[in-house]
Amino acid sequence: MKPAVVGISGPVLLPEESALLRACAPAGVILFARNIQNPGQLSALMRDLRSALPADAVFMVDQEGGRVARLKPPHWRAHPPARAIGELHARDAKAGLRVAWLTGALIGLQCRAAGFSVVAAPVLDVAAPDGHDVIGDRSFAADPAPVGALGGAMARGLLAAGVQPVGKHAPGHGRAGADSHHELPVLDDVTPAELLPFRENAWLPWMMTAHIRYTARDMLNPATQSHAIVAGIIRATGAGLGFAGVLTTDDLAMGALSGTPGERAARALAAGCDIALHCSGVLAESADVLAGIAEISAAAAARLAAGRRMATEAARELDEAALAAERDALLG
């Protein structure tokens, strides 16, 4: 198995995509709006993907709530953005924490029923007044304490539904003045405040890196490709986050990075990431990523297995209708 999660081009698995997945065996796939039309179509696509991938492959989706959602009405329930939950928490802390958990559980139930095992949420970035709105209302708050508490509650809700949450974007994207989808944000250093929500949620099974260069730590490389950031902050204990779970990159196809798809993936893995995430769905790019990297390490495979166990052990029987009714009442 290769330590990569890749995208596919559309709502059906093409023969050439199936051939690549069978030949190169990535750790999993990630699906986007271009891949999802309705429950019947998605079920058929998932069936075809399962037949082409290893038995323990990851099925990932971005489903934060608000504007970042791939499963959408009318076929799937809409969910509030993190900011709305944070605003409720500011008025009523107990209700805010409950809605964060309920939202995680409802998203998780939706995603698990659709066949997904990993959900790229919650966002643990702390909002900043001068930060680019690529984060914006995806952040719970401008105060790191509620971000950490609400992110943890949402993550526990996702786990209760039997899916693995991904905390993003370590070590913190809120202050970035540029959108890393298009260019590389540059900051001087990481602050203790933006690290706090990630440190408090270092127990999560997965985290995602930020495509941001912190010049005080690494003058050349963004966090995703920086050993100084991965080893010195994300993995480090003490002043670091102490994160021991699966570390995935943000989308390597984003404009913040340079080099071929294979070069981008190799640099991220060499820096200490466990999974190279490449989302474009362009067959040649996915093939380049998979050709340019070695088989998954024993340590990364063990972390993937631990994440699966965490979700299995945390999963509970949940009544989706009752949870939705409770959340609607709390949100008013």
How would you concisely characterize the structure shown here?
Helix content is about 40%, strand content about 15%.
Structural class: alpha/beta
The CATH topology turns out to be TIM Barrel
The main sheet comes to: 8 strands, parallel
Mean pLDDT figure = 96
Describe this structure in words.
The protein has helices spanning 15-24, 39-52, 82-91, 93-114, 144-160, 192-200, 227-234, 261-271, 283-291, 298-314, 320-331, and strands spanning 2-6, 26-31, 58-61, 63-65, 68-69, 118-119, 164-170, 186-187, 206-209, 213-214, 246-248, 276-278. The protein is α/β, with parallel strands linked by helices. It has one domain (16-259, 277-331): TIM Barrel. The strands form 3 sheets. The protein has an 8-stranded parallel β-sheet with strand order 11-9-7-6-3-2-1-12, sandwiched between helices. A two-stranded antiparallel sheet has the order 4-5. Strands 8-10 form a two-stranded parallel sheet. Strand 2, helix 2 (39-52) and strand 3 form a beta-alpha-beta unit.
Key phrases:
332 residues; alpha/beta; TIM Barrel; two-stranded antiparallel ribbon
Give the SSE layout:
Layout: E1 2-6, H1 15-24, E2 26-31, H2 39-52, E3 58-61, E4 63-65, E5 68-69, H3 82-91, H4 93-114, E6 118-119, H5 144-160, E7 164-170, E8 186-187, H6 192-200, E9 206-209, E10 213-214, H7 227-234, E11 246-248, H8 261-271, E12 276-278, H9 283-291, H10 298-314, H11 320-331
Parallel strand pairs: 1-2, 1-12, 2-3, 3-6, 6-7, 7-9, 8-10, 9-11
Antiparallel strand pairs: 4-5
Helix pairs in contact: 1-9, 3-4, 4-5, 4-11, 5-6, 5-10, 8-9
